[in-house]
């Protein structure tokens, strides 16, 4: 047992390198960077920990509310290959792109859309105990899709008997974008069984803007204009949705049982039911023949997700412990896109079934008083059935694509001296549709003084191309069409061999805690070979977008984090990120990667039971086209909130997001103006 104390001892030495707010660092542990709770492998990289207390301070309803206030993590809009992309956002860390960020719930992957454009609005904040964000490649532990970082949403633990009910309502100053949010969580113990139940309903009304359009009737294969078509050259104005009409229901449970002193068994069951609807400017087939582009369409989604998993934790002896997970995530998407101006067939092209089956098994061995080894095996199979990847553009028949990953990883954490720790890791992935990949990671954490740490990290990463990048056939994307790299259709006359991305990340950071001030500065450089990006060809009705490899991409950056406790009633936190991205083959910057982002938060307790919070968020200019000819304006948003603890059971809260009604450009997604909200939280 003496050796096991090493796990917590080392964790206390390194601590968490960055905190979203003013959480006491010595009270925080991480699991995402290591896959084992008391192990520090991976903490030589940058880690952000967002606690339940932090989430309650900003009165967040969904994951999107939380991420909007974290610098260097920004939303990328307009990448989803459907007209509804105007209201869909994906997360990018340090400019690595939406597909380079892996989102997990309790360490498990979710089935869903490529790039996860819905996830930010699906996950209720009330079910979250904490969020761990590891910046930089984590491929040595998680394989593909973790080239930019990992976001692990850790749900509330099954512990003491407790229940929480949270009710929130909000809308903008014009009575639009209404949101009703109801969340309930309860957990407890009955005899030797621990249980947790949760449920949530997120109901939102749409936010739209009027947009003008001029229809163009084309031959769907060649792109030639059909001048004689009665729908050609018709103009008008129609609303475009920037925030869906949506109803999202989540319900789930977890049951845990200790089989004996050394073995425990857990079982999870989660269900998502989602309905979304909006109007957009897109394309639709005309019953009399031809494809009508730039026409109003109605898009309706009926989505379901069912997740089931079991996990077995076991203590083999004092030095050896392990965990095995088996889980399936099944996603059923049914989309109907219908023309508004004319009679035409209902398109179900963007419907799909997605299944992820995974088996993971990890072992942690305390070799001696200064050496901990963690190793693991993973088998994962991802299956996508979709008509969006059917090479016949007019067909709604499903095509099946399947990818298998077989992986082995090992990592070694060594306490070299009382003040110096080293971490080394390696992974090998056998991939059914790409070259096999080997990645390594190594890091050092040096305690310079009692209050100062120096850390350095080197990590390799990779990302295999996803199904959309390889096979999608979309008749409408921005001002053209979108085809996967393997597709030959119409103006795209040849296939392109899309290679996996490969990256190297170098990072060095200095952190210091002196009395009431925590400060950290991070320098990082990510070099990506064969980065997968959308490129365009042709013009007019023959224009199309496809995925190709950029030869070399270089991303440099600096992050500054400051947390200052003014007194027992007030604290400040400041975060700033500077990014310099470049496609080395063209000397152009990457799109939708702001050069500068920053946030300032101020929390002040007016009375013992009344607290306020003020948040300023700044996002700098960013290019919206690959030629770097179009930029979006920078902007600053200011949010304010008040929380009133009526008693130990009831808390009331209210606030205004974007209090000065700042406008942002449409390429950057949803902006509903000043947003007013109020809610109540009951703990019993």
Automatic annotation (TrEMBL):
Alphabetical list of InterPro entries matching this protein: Beta-barrel_TonB, Beta-barrel_TonB_sf, Plug_dom, Plug_dom_sf, TonB-dep_rcpt-like
Top-level taxon of origin: Bacteria
UniProt entry tagged with the keyword Secreted: no
Membrane topology: Multi-pass membrane protein
Major location (coarse): membrane
Signal peptide from the UniProt entry: 1-21
PROSITE patterns: TONB_DEPENDENT_REC_3
Xref: Gene3D superfamilies: TonB-dependent receptor, beta-barrel domain, TonB-dependent receptor, plug domain
Keyword Ribonucleoprotein among UniProt keywords: no
Any one GO MF annotation of this record: siderophore uptake transmembrane transporter activity
Any one cellular-component term (Gene Ontology): cell outer membrane
Compartment annotation: Cell outer membrane
Pfam families attached to this UniProt entry: Plug, TonB_dep_Rec_b-barrel
Domain TonB-dependent receptor plug: 43-150
UniProt KW keywords: Cell outer membrane, Membrane, Receptor, Signal, TonB box, Transmembrane, Transmembrane beta strand, Transport
Domain TonB-dependent receptor-like beta-barrel positions: 260-659
One of the protein's GO biological processes: siderophore transmembrane transport
Similarity remark: Belongs to the TonB-dependent receptor family.
Stated name of the protein: TonB-dependent receptor
């Amino acid at each position: 047992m003496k050796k096991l104390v090493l796990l917590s001892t080392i964790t206390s030495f390194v601590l968490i390198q960055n905190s979203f707010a003013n959480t006491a660092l010595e009270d925080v542990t991480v699991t995402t960077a290591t896959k084992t709770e008391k192990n520090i492998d991976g903490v030589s990289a940058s880690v952000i920990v967002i606690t339940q207390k932090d989430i309650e301070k900003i009165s967040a309803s969904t994951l999107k509310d939380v991420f909007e206030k974290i610098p260097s993590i920004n939303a990328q809009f307009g990448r989803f290959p459907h007209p509804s992309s105007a209201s869909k956002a994906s997360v990018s860390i340090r400019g690595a792109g939406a597909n380079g960020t892996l989102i997990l719930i309790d360490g498990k992957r979710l089935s869903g859309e490529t790039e996860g454009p819905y996830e930010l609005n699906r996950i209720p904040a009330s079910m979250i105990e904490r969020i761990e964000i590891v910046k930089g490649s984590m491929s040595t532990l998680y394989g593909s899709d973790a080239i930019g970082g990992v976001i692990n949403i850790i749900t509330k633990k099954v512990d003491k008997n407790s229940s929480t009910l949270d009710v929130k309502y909000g809308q903008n100053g014009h009575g639009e974008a209404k949101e009703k949010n109801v969340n309930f969580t309860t957990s407890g113990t009955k005899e030797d069984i621990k249980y947790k139940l949760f449920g949530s309903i997120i109901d939102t009304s749409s936010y739209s803007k009027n947009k003008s359009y001029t229809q163009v009737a084309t031959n769907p294969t060649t792109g030639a204009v059909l001048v004689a078509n009665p729908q050609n050259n018709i103009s008008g104005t129609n609303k475009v949705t920037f925030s869906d009409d949506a109803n999202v229901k989540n319900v789930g449970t977890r049951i845990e049982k200790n089989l004996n002193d050394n073995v425990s068994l857990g079982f999870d069951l989660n269900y998502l039911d989602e309905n979304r609807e909006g109007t957009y400017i897109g394309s639709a087939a005309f019953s009399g023949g031809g494809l009508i582009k730039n026409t109003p369409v109605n898009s309706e989604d009926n989505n379901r997700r069912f997740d089931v998993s079991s996990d077995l934790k076991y203590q083999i002896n004092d030095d050896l412990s392990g965990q095995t997970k088996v889980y399936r995530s099944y996603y059923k998407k049914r989309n109907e896109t219908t023309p508004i101006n004319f009679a035409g067939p209902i398109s179900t092209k963007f419907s799909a079934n997605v299944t992820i089956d995974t088996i993971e098994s990890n072992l942690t061995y305390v070799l001696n008083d200064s050496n901990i080894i963690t190793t693991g095996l993973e088998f994962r199979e991802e299956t996508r059935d979709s008509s969006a990847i059917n090479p016949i553009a007019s067909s709604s028949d499903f095509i099946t694509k399947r990818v298998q990953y077989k992986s082995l990883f090992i990592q070694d954490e060594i306490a070299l001296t009382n003040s110096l720790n080293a971490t080394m890791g390696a992974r090998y992935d056998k991939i059914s549709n790409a070259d096999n990949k080997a990645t390594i990671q190594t890091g050092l954490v040096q305690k310079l003084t009692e209050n100062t740490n120096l850390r350095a990290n080197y990590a390799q990463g990779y990302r295999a191309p996803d199904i959309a990048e390889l096979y999608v056939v979309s008749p409408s994307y921005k001002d053209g069409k979108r085809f996967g790299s393997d597709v030959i259709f119409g103006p795209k006359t040849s296939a392109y061999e899309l290679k996996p991305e490969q990256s190297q990340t170098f990072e060095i950071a200095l952190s210091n805690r002196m009395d009431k001030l925590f400060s950290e500065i991070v320098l990082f450089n990510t070099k990506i070979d064969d980065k997968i990006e959308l490129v365009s060809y042709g013009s007019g009705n023959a224009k199309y977008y496809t995925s190709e490899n950029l030869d070399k991409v270089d991303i440099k950056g600096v992050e500054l984090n400051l947390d200052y406790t003014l007194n027992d009633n007030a604290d400040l936190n400041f975060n700033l990120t500077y990014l310099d991205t470049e496609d080395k083959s063209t000397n152009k910057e990457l799109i939708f990667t702001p050069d500068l982002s920053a946030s300032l938060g101020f929390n002040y307790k007016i009375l013992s039971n009344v607290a306020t919070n003020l948040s300023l968020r700044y996002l700098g200019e960013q290019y919206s086209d690959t030629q770097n000819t179009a930029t979006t304006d920078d902007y600053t948003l200011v949010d304010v909130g008040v929380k009133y603890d009526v008693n130990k059971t009831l808390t009331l809260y209210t606030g205004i997001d974007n209090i000065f009604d700042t406008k942002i450009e449409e390429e950057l997604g949803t902006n509903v103006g000043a947003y007013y909200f109020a809610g109540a939280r009951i703990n019993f």
